[in-house]
Design a protein that fits this description.
The protein is mainly alpha-helical. Helix content is 75%, strand content 3%. The chain has one domain. Strands 1-2 form a two-stranded antiparallel ribbon. It is globular, with a radius of gyration of 17 Å. It comes from Allotamlana fucoidanivorans. It is found in: Cell membrane; Membrane.
């Protein structure tokens, strides 16, 4: 095992840790790790990310549920439109994106670059919603109309299908802002959505690319160890600090990806 692989497996541990702490962000680490450190192209990296994040989130969902921090009704309401959008996007849209998206004089925007830049821009939007100080909202007892949840889930599902993310970094703010769920419960609830979205999205990828199963399973098992530890640590961190830290982390990673792709 060379030094690059060792660093990759250390990264896998951190991926799980992040998922356990904030209910998202696993793909924010997994995709850049696979692309920039281990040399996978973005399409394969985003596919592997779906499997790693989905499997790891399944364990995290169980751990959070034992602590009473999963709202299954809201989570499943988001999941149904989302997993359909993720599957269709990974199965049909991503494989048919042209290899060259844009070309002008000596500059060419490739499919791989486009996926990574789009990934980073979505991360920036999500980070801003988590960093800014929102005034205390009135929490309504009337649940949000299901058609709104359906549309929100459909849109986020399509976005996460393109970028190969579980969507936790989008679902956490969505659950906090739209569904009025407290931060820590939003973190737990997001994990069930991430699990369903990621694993069903990965099924779409299995039909179109060759999977290096030995590497993927080892990477995933290490991530699972990380999420178990992350869930344990999360009980010692306040929801407010968790939200802001999450936002700054996402913004930092987005800036790095944009820098790497444009240089």
């Amino acid at each position: 095992m060379d030094n690059i692989q060792v660093l990759g497996y250390i990264g896998a541990l951190i991926v799980g840790l992040v998922l356990g702490l904030i209910g998202g962000g696993g793909s924010i680490l997994t995709v850049p790790l696979l692309v920039y450190l281990l040399g996978y192209n973005p399409v394969i990296a985003t596919a592997y990310s779906l499997f790693v994040v989905g499997t790891t989130s399944l364990v995290g969902t169980y751990k959070k549920h034992k602590k009473g921090l999963v709202d299954f009704k809201t989570g499943l309401a988001f999941s149904f439109p989302s997993f359909a959008a993720v599957y269709l996007t990974r199965r049909y849209l991503v494989p048919n994106i042209p290899e060259t998206l844009f070309s002008f004089e000596n500059y060419t925007l490739t499919k791989d670059m486009g996926i990574m830049i789009f990934f980073a821009l979505i991360m920036v939007i999500a980070s801003i919603s988590m960093i800014k100080d929102n005034k205390e909202k009135v929490v309504y007892t009337i649940p949000q109309a299901y058609y709104k949840t359906f549309i929100q889930g459909l849109i986020i599902g399509m976005i996460t299908g393109i970028i190969g993310a579980g969507g936790g970094f989008l679902y956490v703010p969505a659950l906090v802002i739209w569904a009025n769920i407290p931060m820590k419960k939003a973190v737990g609830t997001s994990l069930i959505i991430v699990t369903i979205n990621s694993l069903i999205g990965f099924i779409g990828d299995v039909q179109t690319i060759d999977i290096e199963w030995s590497f993927l399973i080892i990477f995933t098992l290490i991530s699972i160890a990380g999420i178990i530890f992350g869930v344990f640590l999360s009980k010692f961190i306040s929801g407010k600090k968790l939200k802001k830290s999450f936002g700054f982390f996402v913004l930092l990673m987005a800036s790095y990806i944009i820098y790497k792709e444009l240089n």
